[in-house]
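Lab notebook, bench 4. We co-purified these components, and the gel suggests they stay together. Before we commit to crystallization screens, I want a quick structural picture of the whole thing.
Request: model the full complex, all chains together.
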Amino acid sequence: MTAMQTSVAVKDLELAYGSVTVLNGLNLDIAEGEFIVLLGPSGCGKSTLLNCIAGLLDITDGQIWIKGKNVTWEEPKDRGIGMVFQSYALYPQMTVRGNLSFGLKNAGLPRPEIEKRIARAAEILQIEPLLERKPAALSGGQRQRVAIGRALVRDVDVFLFDEPLSNLDAKLRSELRVEIKRLHQQLRNTMIYVTHDQIEALTLADRIAVMRGGYIQQLADPKTIYNRPANLFVAGFIGSPAMTMLKGRIDAAGAFAMDGLSVPLAGYNGAVPPAGTEAILGVRPEHVAIAPASDGPGDGPGDGPGDGLPATIDIDEPMGSDSLLWMTIAGQPISARIEADHPFRQGQPVRLGFDIPRCSLFDRKSEQRL
Amino acid sequence: MADLSLPATAAARVEPRGARPRPALSRRNVILYGTLIVVALYYLLPLYVMVVTSLKGMPEIRLGNIFSPPMEITFQPWVKAWAEACTGLNCDGLSRGFWNSVRITVPSVVISIAIASVNGYALANWRFRGSEVFFAILIFGAFIPYQVMLYPIVILLREIGLYGTLTGLVIVHSIFGMPILTLLFRNYFASVPEELFKAARVDGAGFWGIYLKIMLPMALPIFVVAIILQVTGIWNDFLFGVVYTRPDTYPMTVQLNNIVNSTQGVKEYNVNMAATIITGLVPLVIYFISGKLFVRGIAAGAVKG
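Here is the predicted assembly.
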């Protein structure tokens, strides 16, 4: 990351509406050509941050740098950005061609240059047959393509996406998701992408910034975010079905103890805290192995401990490709993802094994990863 | 399970199937259409009497059968109302007032709508410090009775030398149209998605660029509403017309009043009726040609807050 040049830098950004502070002392450095996703629940300030970078909101304090230039006081058009909105925001009275050329005409570009850029964008996005149509005559996916094209023709360094796929149905969404990724690989522009959809974030991003309450909770690549969440919020927000959170404490042997059960933490990817710490063990459903209770000790499932932890199956949720089993372990609910044609029945006692190196341990007070 | 037909006993009866039958002469229809027809007749009857009377000669009117159609159709009352009726010193009928009204209405409508639409656009999209206070004051202006402001405006116009001129009246109409028109346009532009405005800003359009190229082309329905409100309102205005103009610049409504209420000689009912219809013709025509757009515009802009 250090070898690459910084494309967008947000420095000590603060934004307040009267007495309500939305963003407070936010710092973010985005490298040249990086695809960064701002992810968080609604009201976390991710769209606000994007609008600040675009210059559509006047910030209270701090600086915005784009391409090594301080653009804090610049108008949106002078920042070298293109923006794609959730509702497409196409000008309804103009044709697709008019929509694409509007910004270029405002910039006073010569006509042949405008034509050239429109032709290029239309070719990349495959919207050539639509150029003379009005937005009302386009489908949702086509409209979003045109909206992306409007950012494309501006020939800018930074693309800003504000939940661009949220208005589309599930099938189109996954199609356009791939297309955006392809576009990024083709253009190598810096892209900042706001979404509340974790699948979009995990599939598209080079790095994800998980936000809550105006603060960045964790900024890392998708693998790290998924496997080593920095705190309880990130752990709970990322992953579907959600991570199981087991409450317990660290016992004298350095194991995780809950209601008489003891989970050895050997191999845990981090420092096991001192005995007596109130802790939470986060286990993703795919990191739980199940075996029938009748199995003798020694031939326990997968990489779990030999004897296994006793649990009871409550509910089976078949999801087609696999199955989600809801169980009770030491009085707490836990879910496990296993292959669809499994032999387990409701009420059956089973034994569980955890993939400890891929589990997460959190301090119950600070909610931070241990 | 392959046999889906009903048992023979049930098939003998007529089972309900398809659209429910709706007899044309049901009680519901009789009451509904009956009421509508009666109310329509109630409102149309005066118009009928006016048209019929305006086409009769005075001897026939004196017979007193106001509902009977004319035995001898004459257009003389219409000609007289338009070109010959006397009001005060002038005896050139309503034509003078008609042209005065046109010269008052057209500039007033254009000026007030031009300013109010920019006002509404600025208030909806370019929130500036104190914009809410400004808007509140403007709306408050809509609730002050005109009578309170009549005399102060007389003094104001006198001081700037415009009292009694058409220009003065145009200014007064433009200002008084401002609160309601600004509210109308602000609400309409507020209903335009904010992202459209943001996209235009990213595309480098400024205050006027966004207004002229993005907002104006989208605002046709609300412009139609504004034009209808202003044309009918200003054309029908009597109070401002009688206060701020002189006899030779009287608008049509004031002239109509002077014709109908003249106390000399015989009352020429046919001429009065013709004059009244002529005066009311302009708003009537406006409503007829723009009814559909009017409803659409009202539904799109004015109701939403």
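The helical segments of chain A are 46-54, 96-106, 111-125, 140-152, 170-187, 198-204, 222-227, 232-237. Worth comparing against the SEC data before the next meeting. Chain A has eight helices and 20 strands.
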